[in-house]
Amino acid sequence: MEKSEEGIERVGYPNDAFFKDVFSQPQHAIAFFKTRLPPAIVAQVDWPSLEVLPSSFVKSGLQQVQADLLFAVNIAGRDTRLFLLFEHQSTVDPTMPLRLLGYVAEILFKHHKAHGLPLPPVLPFVFHQGPERWNVSTAFEDLFQLPDELAGLLPFLPKFHHALLDLTRYDPERDKDESQLRCVLQLMKLARERQLSRYFDWLVGTAAEALPAGLLKTILLYALHTDSDLDVEKIYHKLSPNPELKKSAMSVAEKLIAEGLKKGRVEGMEKGLEKGLEKGLWIGKIQTLEDFLGIDPSSSEVLDPLHISELEALHQGLHREYERRFKQG
């Protein structure tokens, strides 16, 4: 899948792509786990030692197994390793403990093959992005639902449960997360509820000016990729009172226009002619500006018959409207 410079996949599953892009950065992963794991565990972890590991495993039958994110850290002041398995989930899955058991087993088999005993602990954590509440058990043994007369079998069954953050129950006003993490979690919650316009009202009222410019750009791109019905002009004006947010919004706007230029190059090269390449450049730029301005993009069938001078004039008119709305905002 094609990726933007900020790490958001252009097609496919933007929620999962955003999750991986943000939490594959150690500072965000550390901030998350510090507020979500038991305090006694947090105190024993050597957080600067956290590293992101390859999350794909190959089973004996050459069937690839892909987890979302996998981390390793040192614990207890020595070389003991703790593996943190971080799984993004958009739907409620009652078989999640079974799936996680498969991942945990692969991690342990791979570790044993390389290092032998003892085995390291593996802590599986599910990040649920809704929209329905997580209403199934997190305990593996509950998958069996044994009657009371067979309870004697329980000691022979694997026993573990996975940690869970259910974003449908997330309240940023009651949470103790740092400001960057709160902005990310609130965004992912409201994205699934299709309330991203409300998110930007909330964002302006937070300490958003403290967010890194790169994270602000990633947030804006994710929002635009997640909800194609967003009114970009309204979003821009909501952010305008905050200079840092306004600056990031303008940067994203310029990036989208540049991507339109790239798209135009691709379309033009497909035509195979120098004249077609030039026309493809203008078509891509026009369609991107129309989309950004909230205008239904003209189809290639409509634009193709136009002379290059007509396309250039059309683009100039659109760009003047873009500058009027946003650069003087």
What's the quick description here?
This protein is 49% helix and 13% strand. With 329 residues, the protein is α/β, with parallel strands linked by helices.
Molecular structure report:
The strands form two sheets. The chain has a five-stranded mixed sheet with strand order 1-4-5-6-7, with helices on both faces. The chain starts with 13 loop residues before the first helix and ends with a helix. It is an alpha/beta fold and 329 residues long. The protein folds into two domains: 212 residues, no CATH class; 77 residues, no CATH class. Helix 5 packs antiparallel against helix 6, helix 9 packs antiparallel against helix 10 and helix 10 runs parallel beside helix 12.
Short key terms for the protein model shown above:
2 domains; 329 residues; disordered N terminus; five-stranded mixed beta sheet; single chain; 7 strands; two-stranded antiparallel sheet; 49% helix; alpha/beta
